[in-house]
Structure formats: C-alpha cells, structure tokens
Amino acid sequence: MKVGLFFGTFNPIHIGHLIIANYIVEFSDLEEVWFVVTPQSPFKQKASILKNYHRLAIVNLAVENYPKLKSSDLEFNLPQPNYTINTLVHFEEKFPNHQFCLIMGEDNLKGFHKWKNYEAILQNYELYVYPRISEGKTEHKFLAHQKIHKVNAPIVQISSTFIRKAIQEKKDIRIMLPENVWKYIDEMNFYK
Q: Between vectors from CA 162 to CA 78 and to CA 65, what angle results, nearest 5°?
C-alpha cells in the first residue's frame, strides 16, 4: 500500500488540511493519507498547543468518516527532537508492507535543503508537494527532481493559528472545522 504521510501539530486540524489530504488521496497514486500528529516539544512549552492526546482525538474525529484518511501517533513515542528521516525509518519498521511518501507544502520544500539527511529522504522516498502562497525560491535541484511530485491541490488560506485566534476572539468559525471537531473544541473550552 502506498501511503502519504502528512506531518503537523494539527492544533487544531481544519478543513484546509482535510481538503489537501483528500485531494492528494483522490487525485494521485497514493492509496491513503496518514495525519502524523507531531508531539509538543518538551523544550517549547506553549499554552496554546493542546496536549498530544487532545490533538490526536481531534484528528481522529476529523477523519472518522473518510476511510482513506487516517491518524498516527507514532511520533509520540520517539525520542525528541523528532527528525523526519528517523520517523520514516520507524514507519518502515512498523509497516514493512507499506511504501511511504512525504506530503509537504511548497513553503517547506523551499527550506528542504536544511532538513537533517534531506538527501537520504529524497533518495528513498517520494515527495508530494502542494502549493502554498509563500516567499522565497525553491532550490533549483528540487524543481524537476524525479521523486518530487507537484500536486495541483487547491490553495487553502486557513491556518490553525487563525482558527485559534478567531475562537479566542469569539468569532463564529464553525464552517472552517468539521462539525464533530468544532463540538469537541467548544465542549472542552479549547483556545478560549
């Protein structure tokens, strides 16, 4: 099975994440997309970041009706700080019959040459890159690389930061979140 790994804090997951993941799983050769919930770094305690299990619960709610979308807490049990190359190796060990690929925004590709062991990632994994409106240029060596696939997913200008700020300001942004995610966030009084 060919699986795309979509990493993030998902604090919270919103319809933008789901639109991108759904587009990629429906309009590429990936069979599933897994949302890999990144743990909160013990070195970066921020009050606005929900505990790992709450963010995982929210992702589980968001994907429960979409069989091609899954959640993963694999990084929760890995040593900190997490490096993508190490996480990919752990995924391969745990799921030897799967072929894993990386999903990232175009903004991340622009800084990809700074990632730990980025050459090994490119040598062993395909990258599926969705468009983002961002500053800077993509390294020339990445523009036509055979393992980098540009995905023409819709550009969604919603961020988790925007969602948190809007909730804090008592704005009605329910439409930007799956209904069950909104209910959970509201009932738990998150981001207020």
A: 65
Q: Is residue 36 within 8 Å of 21, Cβ to Cβ?
A: no
CA separation for the pair 56, 60 (Å, rounded): 6
For 123-169, the pLDDT digits (tens) are: 999 999 998 877 777 776 787 889 999 999 999 889 999 999 999 99
Q: In this structure, which topology does domain 2-155 adopt according to CATH?
A: Rossmann fold (3.40.50)
Q: What average pLDDT does the chain have? A: 92
- Which residue type sits at 13? I
Count of residues for the chain?
A: 192
Structural domain spans, the chain: 2-155
Strand partners, 99: 2
pTM beyond 0.85: yes
For 80-119, write each residue's pLDDT tens digit: 888 999 999 999 999 999 999 999 999 889 889 999 999 9
- Please give the C-alpha separations between residue 29 and each of 33, 63, 77, 125, 137, in angstroms, as whole numbers: 11, 20, 30, 14, 27
Coil/strand/helix, residue 26: helix
| Among candidate residues 107, 108, 116, the one with its CA nearest the CA of residue 84 | 116
